[in-house]
Amino acid sequence: MSEWFENWFTKAKEHFDSAVLLKRSGKLRDVLSRLYYAAFSLMVAVCGEPPSGRWKHKGVLKPFFNWLFKEGFSLSEEEQELLKEFYDRRRLADYSTEVILSKEVEIFEELVNKLFEVVDDWRKNNS
To answer: What is the 3-state secondary structure (H, E, C) of the chain?
Structure first.
């Protein structure tokens, strides 16, 4: 695995671990934000260096979906839609006072766990 991948994969795990700790404290806004950044970091890890500058949050989705297809992985329609919606939900968690429900956090936590499974499977097959 490349240094790029390893660094971003480690960052994804750190974000996820932070989400777990924050969840124990009931800080659902911060949990949702850290879960988002775990997902974003995983996508950046597998997509590699951006074509120019840095990866934009919504800009990494298409290359990530292409990566999934190329590598023979898939997400359900619901998971794809959640991933597309995740950035906006994270922004609301960070920049609004809207209530974040524990059920919503659970749904996004499941999504991030699925992304880790996919990336771990790919990693095992490509090491």
So the answer is: CCHHHHHHHHHHHHHHHHHHHHHHCCCHHHHHHHHHHHHHHHHHHHHCCCCCCCCCCHHHHHHHHHHHHHCCCCCCHHHHHHHHHHHHHHHHHHHCCCCCCHHHHHHHHHHHHHHHHHHHHHHHHCC
Asked if pLDDT for residue 26 goes beyond 90, the answer is yes
pTM score above 0.85: yes
**CA gap 68, 77 in Å, rounded:** 13
Given a cut of 90, whether residue 110 has pLDDT beyond it is: yes
Of 26, 45, 49, 15, give the one whose Cα is nearest residue 102.
26
> Rounded to whole angstroms, what are the CA distances from 11 to 34, 37, 115, 125?
11, 9, 14, 21
Judged on CB neighbours under 10 Å (0-12, 13-18, 19+), 14 is middle
